[in-house]
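Why does residue order matter? Because the sequence determines the fold. Keep that principle in mind as you read this record.
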Amino acid sequence: MRVGGISPSQNYMEKLTKVLLILNLLHHRSVVTIDEIERICGITERSVYRYLQVISAAHFPLVYDREIHGYKLLNKDRLNVASLRLDERLMILVALELLAGRVNSFYQESIETISNRIISASFKGIEDIWQAFSSRVIADSKQDLSGLLTSLIVHSAVKSGDRLGVNLSPDGKDGDLLLVERPSLLFSEGWKVTGKGIETAVSLDKVEKVFSC
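Structure:
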């Protein structure tokens, strides 16, 4: 029986196609927002949630990411460097650099090995960026490192081409979250990040948090 000119089999195939498209997005991206699914799949917000419920009911490990206000598939495999986002790798490098200054030479050697593993598993060029920032980590170790970390993540994302999530609000409100494709930097009275998704370049001093996605 046809409903609105569409046969049950056609309707089923259309829904299956949407589910597979959403799964493909979830598989190839760290996080996918509701707006992105609406735009790419050409469906309403209500339909997005309905399809996500179908995916979750099929026992796919679907979880909500509060940081970027989107959904992702949870990787049940053993945690490895390759599974970490760019900003997560950089935060680990900063933490290890701080730790290395507070332990003996035996632990320092292990820390260096771990850091090299993270660097070698990342994009080509991260080593040069890290060398430029690592000395500042120690020099500023007694200060708030938020600004340094923001700058490190942005510079690295520009080099790697990673998409950035830029949060301008301390309480992480949705309206203050910008998704920036192909980020770039310009210098005008300080460093500013720009790219597809930002109408006006944003000063890094005004960024509360930035992360790759």
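The mean pLDDT is 84.
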